[in-house]
């Protein structure tokens, strides 16, 4: 089928309340016998609600499969066996915390498993409902390559299947843009359509900061890093080609979804620069780098800027890493204070025509005066350097991280409805119910004060832009 037809079977949901009618309309139109849902931890209640609605509309004719980051953090191998965190969706169903709406929950690398699952459900001699065909095809699923775990709840029991490898051949993964097209645009790229691209050089970050759900000790280290630049180049080329074919009047851009661009590996970045220079694509792109990666190898950033990089997203996180016990990615503390190094990196990017955005993370154990001081510093940078813009506010959530000691089940929304939802309206990820271990939950008055300071920061930034 065409890219357009494939994309019509795909829904990216921002809000359960706002997007549920579109979800219901998609189910009614397609009447699928296989529904794949992906969810991060804070989205688990929404995934449950979507699965329940699908069962109401389609009945036993649909097999609902849950995957994504949350299952991969809550179902994992331990000494040759399969462990289920208290928030494992299968365990939640078995213990009665959520209704039995997922027929299969998949952790790990499921690309081959998904294809095999489709073959099982489409088998002409399968007979019965889709659930019957799934139950009868488990032996076939077990042959799918890759490192994955597929779990289901059946009559009070938890059954697990585990793939034994080989590792996923990342060089063979198809570019998402070629499969589904490109329809949306990041504001930072001036109206160009923006594709999401990946080097697939790992499932998380090369660093190991304690508070982060992307940390290396949870997601694993780099995977097949020697060909990461080639994979990323193939995806960048796909975005440029697809936009040129489908919407040539818009122009193409891409955002590299690696936790840090190619893991910050200098040789891979140099190879990417050479390939982009030779290809001469009509493409602007952005990605993520740490403060120390920028300051240590500004020569690489300049080279990237020469072949299309014009936006870098950085993690500021906190006023002073020492106040929260340190950050693994803070590698050059002996060179200078974190805030000073961060401003220097933003200034250096701006001097080379590269704009920057920033993520801020509260709820790490800092005091309120430190939060407000950080926002004041960000406002000062915006007045002087025009960046960071945008700024992403977040309030830390304790993710499963393969650590059952905290005991969170995550079956309720992380932020209660009403005044808490309004207070966190400007935040990306946020949590009231699931603070980091050893950190007190947020205080409503303090969150409101932070939001008011952030709103003033945005207004001040707009005035500075007009004045310039």
From TrEMBL:
<keyword id="KW-0411">Iron-sulfur</keyword>
<keyword id="KW-0949">S-adenosyl-L-methionine</keyword>
<dbReference type="InterPro" id="IPR007197">
    <property type="entry name" value="rSAM"/>
</dbReference>
<dbReference type="GO" id="GO:0003824">
    <property type="term" value="F:catalytic activity"/>
</dbReference>
<dbReference type="GO" id="GO:0046872">
    <property type="term" value="F:metal ion binding"/>
</dbReference>
<dbReference type="InterPro" id="IPR058240">
    <property type="entry name" value="rSAM_sf"/>
</dbReference>
<feature type="domain" description="Radical SAM core">
    <location>
        <begin position="189"/>
        <end position="433"/>
    </location>
</feature>
<dbReference type="GO" id="GO:0031419">
    <property type="term" value="F:cobalamin binding"/>
</dbReference>
<dbReference type="InterPro" id="IPR051198">
    <property type="entry name" value="BchE-like"/>
</dbReference>
<dbReference type="InterPro" id="IPR006158">
    <property type="entry name" value="Cobalamin-bd"/>
</dbReference>
<keyword id="KW-0408">Iron</keyword>
<dbReference type="InterPro" id="IPR006638">
    <property type="entry name" value="Elp3/MiaA/NifB-like_rSAM"/>
</dbReference>
<dbReference type="Pfam" id="PF04055">
    <property type="entry name" value="Radical_SAM"/>
</dbReference>
<dbReference type="InterPro" id="IPR030973">
    <property type="entry name" value="CHP04434"/>
</dbReference>
<keyword id="KW-0479">Metal-binding</keyword>
<dbReference type="InterPro" id="IPR013785">
    <property type="entry name" value="Aldolase_TIM"/>
</dbReference>
<protein>
    <submittedName>
        <fullName>B12-binding domain/radical SAM domain protein</fullName>
    </submittedName>
</protein>
<feature type="domain" description="B12-binding">
    <location>
        <begin position="1"/>
        <end position="128"/>
    </location>
</feature>
<dbReference type="GO" id="GO:0051536">
    <property type="term" value="F:iron-sulfur cluster binding"/>
</dbReference>
């Amino acid at each position: 089928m065409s890219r357009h037809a494939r994309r019509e079977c795909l829904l990216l949901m921002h809000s359960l309340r706002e997007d549920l009618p579109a979800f219901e309309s998609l189910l009614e139109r397609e009447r699928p016998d296989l529904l794949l849902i992906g969810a991060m931890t804070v989205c688990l209640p929404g995934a449950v609600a979507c699965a329940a609605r699908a069962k109401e509309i389609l009945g036993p004719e649909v097999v609902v499969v849950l995957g994504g980051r949350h299952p991969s953090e809550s179902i994992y191998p331990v000494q040759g066996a399969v462990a289920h965190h208290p928030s494992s969706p299968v365990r939640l169903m078995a213990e009665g915390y959520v209704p039995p709406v997922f027929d299969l929950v998949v952790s790990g690398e499921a690309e081959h498993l998904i294809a095999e699952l489709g073959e099982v459900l489409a088998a002409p001699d399968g007979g019965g409902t889709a659930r019957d065909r799934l139950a009868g095809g488990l032996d076939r699923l077990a042959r799918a390559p890759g490192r994955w775990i597929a779990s289901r709840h059946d009559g009070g029991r938890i059954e697990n299947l585990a793939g034994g490898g080989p590792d996923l051949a990342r060089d063979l993964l198809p570019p998402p843009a070629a499969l589904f097209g490109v329809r949306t645009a990041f504001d930072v790229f001036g109206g160009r359509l923006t594709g999401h691209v990946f080097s697939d050089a790992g499932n998380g970050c090369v660093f190991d900061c304690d508070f982060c759900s992307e940390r290396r000790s949870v997601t694993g280290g780099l995977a097949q890093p020697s060909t990461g630049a080639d994979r990323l180049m193939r995806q960048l080329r796909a975005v440029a080609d697809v936009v040129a074919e489908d919407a040539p009047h818009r122009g193409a851009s891409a955002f590299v979804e690696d936790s840090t661009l190619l893991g910050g590996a200098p040789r891979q970045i140099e190879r990417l620069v050479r390939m982009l220079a030779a290809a001469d694509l009509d493409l602007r792109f952005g990605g993520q780098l740490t403060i120390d990666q920028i300051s240590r190898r500004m020569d690489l950033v300049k080279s990237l800027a020469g072949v299309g990089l014009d936006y870098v997203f950085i993690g500021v996180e906190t006023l002073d890493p020492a106040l929260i016990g340190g950050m693994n990615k803070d590698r050059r503390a002996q060179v200078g204070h974190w805030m000073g190094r961060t401003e220097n990196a933003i200034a250096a990017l701006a001097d080379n025509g590269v704009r920057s955005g920033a993520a801020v993370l509260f709820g790490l154990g800092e005091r309120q005066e430190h939060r407000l001081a950080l926002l004041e510093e960000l406002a000062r940078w915006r007045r002087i350097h025009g960046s960071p813009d945008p700024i992403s506010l977040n309030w830390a959530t304790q993710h499963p991280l393969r650590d059952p000691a905290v005991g969170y089940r995550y079956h309720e929304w992380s932020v209660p409805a009403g005044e808490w939802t309004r207070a966190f309206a400007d935040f990306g990820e946020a949590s009231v119910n699931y603070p980091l271990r050893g950190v007190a939950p947020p205080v409503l008055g303090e969150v409101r004060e932070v939001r008011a300071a952030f709103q003033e920061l945005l207004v001040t930034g707009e005035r500075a832009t007009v004045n310039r």
